[in-house]
Each structure stands twice: as C-alpha cells, then as structure tokens.
Amino acid sequence: MMRDWGSDFFGQLNGLPKEPLNIIASVLEAMRTQRTFRLTRRELIADLRGLIMSPGGEVKILEAGCGTGASLPDIAELIPSASLYGVDYTRHFIELAEERARSLGFSRATYVQGDIRSLDVWGGAFDAAFCDKLLLHVGPPEVVAGAMARAVKSGGLVGAIEWYPNFLLSTSKPSYLASFNEIFRKAVYNINAASNLERILRSAGLSIVGSKTYVAEAKSLDEEPFWRSFIVNQAPLFIHAGLISEAEAREIIADIEEINERGEFHGSFIVRSSIGMKKPI
C-alpha cells in the first residue's frame, strides 16, 4: 500500500544542489567500474540474453532504478539489438544517463524520471526487466519486484542485483569497523535485500531460474577507484547526513590510510544476483 512505501536518502536527491549530486554520481561511476559489480552486471545481462534472445531478434529491456546509465555500455555490447527503457527517480541521474547514451551513440535507450513502483503502464511490453542496487534503497522491495513482473510479457524475465554493504575491512580496532558498517545500517532502507532476492522475486509470482553470489575484494585502497571513492571520499556526505561524527570519521579514515600505507589493507563485501521467470500463459 502507498503508506508503506519508503526510501532512504536516494529518495531525497532531487532537492539537493549539483555539488553533492555530482559527488554521489562519481561514487556511482566508481561502483560501475568496480570489477565484481561489473562482472555481476555483465553475467546477469548475458544470462538474460541467453534465456530470451532469438537470433537477430529485438529485445526490449526495462531497467528499474537505472541511475546514471551504468548498464548501457554492457547492454550495448552484449545485446546489441536491445531497446532499453530506464527509469530513475533522480532527475540529475536521468540527465547523466541520457548523456551517456549520446556519447555511446546508442539511439535505442530511453530514460525517464519516475518512481518504478507507481509506473504500471506497460502491460507486459518487455522481454526482461532488471534492477541493479535498487532494492537496497526503496521499499517495499516486493512492490518493486511486482512492478517489474507486470512490465514483462508471459515467460519474461526479471533480474535483480544487490550487495550487502557490510564490509570486511582492515582496522586496528574492532570498534572502527563496527562504526564504519553502522553508517550503512543507518543509511540504507533494506540492509538485507541481497540475502532475500529469491524471496522478493517469488513474492511477485516469479519462479527462480538462477542465483549467484560473488565476493569483491581488494588489497589496497587504490587497487580500483571504488575503494577510496566509497570509503574515503564519501566521508563528508556521511558526516553531513549525521551518520557519523566528523571526529570519528577522521579517526577511522586515518587508521585505514595508515594500514593501507603499510601494505596491510584488506577490503571485501558480498554481491548477489537472481533471475526469476514470469509464468508462461
């Protein structure tokens, strides 16, 4: 029901000035290129292609919570005949997604600003729908899954990618790690979305055709842009949002930086994906 709907800070970005939006967009770009997120996304897209694509046939795909269009380069490469329809609540992200489509010269991508939970106008028009790191931020997740399920045709597919933002991270004190992970427990709407993908998709009447689990890890803060961008560069946003005090954030980051300089850094987290099929009529 409408009164049960909710979201975390991602549902409030339209009111922010460009500067913090661009910081968040830069973090999203670092997440796009992080190798485990990229592998998970590409394998999900490839699995969708293998299950729905006939040789030379057009594939219509809906992406819920498309963000800045992170998936488009992979869709363009892996399913070149695809037509992509992306929906995201944040206007600035839609602008960046459209800019990405233009830079890639991909003319069959359409991006619109809206809430996937309330957009129920497609009537089974799509071969597949998917979301990538969306269920963590909006709810109820069953409503999101239901909207995607209604958007696909009989026998169509619905995929979901989610991560568990509870890091294994090198710190000299257990309290530092606990405080760092507490940021995300406070910040996100559905902290356990990744562990419930199958249940969420089944709630929409879908049958599960496959699930995968991945571990992302690094031995340096600078091994990939993601690690420093997510752990260090976002700190001002966490402080501003009241998720952690400035003194504590500085202390934790200094500790992690020192460990990193000694070559003793480790960071890791879990990413999951699942695909469900709509019952053929």
Summed up, what is this model?
With 281 residues, the chain is of the alpha/beta class. It has helices at residues 18-33, 35-52, 72-78, 91-104, 141-151, 174-187, 197-203, 225-233, 235-240, 246-261, and strands at 6-7, 59-64, 82-88, 109-113, 126-132, 138-139, 152-169, 206-218, 267-278. The strands form 2 sheets. The chain has a 7-stranded mixed beta sheet with strand order 4-3-2-5-7-9-8, with helices on both faces. A two-stranded antiparallel sheet has the order 1-6.
Key features of this structure:
alpha/beta; 42% helix; seven-stranded mixed sheet
Query: Based on helices, strands and strand pairing, what is the structural class?
Result: alpha/beta
Subunit arrangement of the protein: single chain
Strand tally is 9
N/C terminus separation: 27 Å
How would you write the strand order of the largest sheet?
A: 4-3-2-5-7-9-8
The number of distinct helices, counting runs of at least 4 residues, comes to 10
Indicate the proportion of strand residues: 25-35%
- Rg is 19 Å
The biggest sheet, with number of strands, parallel, antiparallel or mixed sense and barrel status, is: 7 strands, mixed
Instruction: Write the element-wise H/E pattern from the N-terminal end onward.
Output: EHHEHEHEEEHEHHEHHHE
**Poorly predicted tracts of residues:** none
Shape: globular
The residue-averaged pLDDT reads: 92
Percentage of residues in helical conformation: 40-55%
